[in-house]
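Hi support team,

I submitted a single chain yesterday and got back a structure, but I'm not sure I'm reading the token output correctly. Could someone confirm the output below corresponds to the sequence I sent? I've pasted both exactly as they appear in my results page.

Thanks,
R.
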Amino acid sequence: MINSGGRVLRWTAPAGKWQVLVVGDQFRTSQTRSVNNPTRGKDTSASLFDYLNADAARQFLAFTHEQYKKYVGDEFGKTVLGFRGDEPDFAYTPWTPGILERFTSEKGYDIKPYLPLFFVPHPDPETRHAKADYWDVWSKLFRDNFFKIQADWCAANGLAYRVHLNHEDMMMQLVKSEGDFFRDMRYVQVPGIDAIWHQIWTDNVADFPKLASSAAHLFGRARAFTESFAAYRPTPDVAQAKWIIDEQFVHGINDLEIMFYPSSANGEKKPAGFLGSDRFPSLVSYAERAAYLLSSGVPTASIGVYFPTSSMWLGDEAADKLTLDLTKQLLESQRDFDYVDDDSLANLLKLRQDSFENMSGSAYRTIIVPGADLISRKALDRLKEFARSGGHVIFLECTPREISDRNILHAKPDGDFAWATVRRLSDLRLPPFDVDFKSFLPSLKYLHRRLKDGDLYFFFNESDKPQATEATLSGRGRARILDPTVGSEGDLAARIEGDRVRVKLSLEPSESRFLLLSADRTH
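Hi R., thanks for writing in. Yes, this is the structure output for that exact sequence:
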């Protein structure tokens, strides 16, 4: 006999070993280190609010943002530039009053029979599809009733909302706790990531900063930020800290927030690690100048990589791995790209002749779909239009097995993919776009931003060995080296070949370099 909420369930278990799950809903908070937490720790003592409830978000603004406005509102847009959020996520299956009605209205069926099955260790395919529908519904509520409300308030008050999520380096975890990275960032003025432990280091492949920069490019945002160094282990010195910063810069981050918890080392008064170094101020000066340069102009990536969030909702770890493998291969062969989400394909990107244009004004001429089991009908139809207009669509390893219309539960196969190309990752060959190296140098990464009167290139040698090559760059005019370390510039020998410039590149271990192509000496 089970007594739950005053109701009694009587059930006689047949012979055998049974485990009984009683599923209900209750308000529980994730861990937080809020200022009103009585323990001053990061735990569940201080209650968070219902992220999916618009009234709760507005009450949160009344308690916090409006109070700042009352006392320091005359500094908004000057001293106070915005509000910062940190890791809003769900430690439990999201729930809010009214979600059942919202689900039925949107998906056309009743989710209640499936809810208890969400908690079984190995749900069957039907349950996984219903659960993916549920994730689709609550992640839209999360976008509209939490992130958008804060972003709209900030915009109305001359401020920017900046926030990063949790688990950006582990997307199978992120889609469980935050739903959809790009959906969450859709209205955020400064999308971000964090690197606080050991996520970005010389022994790690750390391409996840591309998530924030891709969101910024897709949604027309000038900046993408990183929270870096809080509780970093091991503690970096100045050279290592610069490497970590440059690794994020070359992946499109251009707004740096330095965090560091240890305040002293071995009882000394000066801070531990790079913060206590006499070279720290010069590192900050370099980072400020570099971030300014990297926020100039517009991004130039001409490849869009479909991010298979809905496949991950179904538990498709293979699509996640293939996306990471593709990311690594593209970056190591100097083929820059942005991640592109299903919503953006379906509703946001503008179809031009042979390209999709994002809100930053850059154009994708190739879209790669890496092993997604599932894609929406709207996104697929847009890809067909894109292909007919002259764009290039590549399905990597396989075409999607299921296409969803109103819901994912009743997704069906589509056999018509003659309009696209199917390739194996090992056979993927893409022509060089804005950068072509004479030799294959996988550790030499680059970023390109197009200015009104020139082209800005950032190169970073990730390796501990010197790298040298001849590079052909898209652009015109004189080549100059910009040095953000000291704020200087100098000429670089180059050969102009029409709308391309050929230069010799030589970078020492962990060295970074800015090149500017411009005919204007006074730039």
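A quick pointer for reading it: The chain has a mean pLDDT of 92. Let us know if anything else looks off.

Best,
Support desk
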